[in-house]
Amino acid sequence: MKKNLKGFKGWFLPEKRANFERWLFALHRLTGIFLILYLCLHIFVVGSRAFGKESWENTMKLVGAFGKGAYANFVHIFEFILILVIGFHALNGVRLLLTEFGMFLGKPKRPEYPYVASSLKGPRIFMYFLMIVLFVYIIFGVQEFFILK
Amino acid sequence: MKVKFFVKRYIPDIGKEGFDEYEIELTEGLTVLDALLYIKENIDQSLSVRYSCRMGICGSCGMIINGKPDLACHTQVKDVVENGIIKVEPIPNLPLVRDLVTDMSSVFAKHKKIKPFVIRKDEKEQENPVREYKQTPEELLEYLQFSYCIQCGLCISSCPVSSTDELFFEPLILAQAYRFCVDSRDEGIEERLNVVSQSHGVFNCHFAGGCSNACPKGVDPALAIQLLKRLILKRAIGFLKKKKGADIVSPYPEGPNKDKIPKPPPKTV
Ligand code: SF4
Ligand code: FES
Fold first, then answer.
1. How large is the ipTM?
2. What domains sit in chain A, N to C, each tagged with a CATH number?
3. Interface test with B, best of A33, A112, A115 (most B CBs within 10 A)
4. Inter-chain contact B212–A113, Cβ cutoff 8 Å?
5. What domains can you pick out in chain B, each with its CATH number?
6. What's the pTM?
């Protein structure tokens, strides 16, 4: 007997004709891992203030806060991606929270064929709403980061 | 028309692994299970496949057919064939015994843990029933959908949480837990909620919905799991109403008339 677990492939590569929520799950995991790694970096950077003014300024230089040129641009784009990641993770988190309280789900009923599960139908509308919010958020982000800069 | 079958093989005794290719004639009404049995009878006797009812009721024949989890016995070859090819794989996320046969014993062990039966405080009455419990059609509808589960395990194959966590209470188990929690006759909700709210339990689910998409019986386990979470959250903030199991239909005034029930035929063995 062998275990035959799908492993991480199961998180990120849904099978054929998978539902949309599977991709949201994959993105949620991906952004979650990204945020954990970022949080370590963030604590390292912000924590440097505890060792005095000089160390704070040195780390600030390290992350290219006041500089110009390619490196500073790279950090800028990284920050933009970070905002997107946070936006998605937060909004999808809101979706999960609300469905955990049983909202938008519909009621159990007799399945009539061809059957589409009501838990996949109901929250969709809400999901589209969240996606629109995310889209508006991105537009503001682009403006803030790249145009008004 | 000829159809090529690529069947995933795994025989641990002789170290065989990988896909085998078979070619068979497509006939009218041929299901994937029929085709596999044809292969077993006429081409390769070493192929193992599990089946029983051949009509979508027993849940033995779940497998991945051309990338989609489905029951082999209710999948028509002509509906799923792509460029003359059908690829058949066993259900992932479950231990593999041989070829297309998976081991469900860990799932059944978890099923046992959630006590999949009506629990009553008055066990004596339950063991020696006089009459049935009351239940309205609306109360039936609360759980009916989830009781259609045939434990085929297809929902496990498309659950991303099960794919890395063997100890996770699979979608079908959580759906069954909910099914009994909301049964109006049941009085064991506390015990079940205690089991499923542990780690590897219901809160490991992040509503990817793969289970509901894969289920061939319209069970919608994702719905049951979210509603189960709601029960647990409600209990945590003290909003869960104390449930009293349904009453018994009032007994016959003169007692059950056992004389009218015909006697069983005499024993033959
Ligand atoms: S919930 Fe559906 S997919 Fe899962 S075991 Fe039951 S019948 Fe099969
Ligand atoms: S053989 Fe029973 S469900 Fe397919």
1. 0.86
2. 18-105+116-147 (1.20.1300.10)
3. A115
4. no
5. 2-101 (3.10.20.30), 104-236 (1.10.1060.10)
6. 0.89
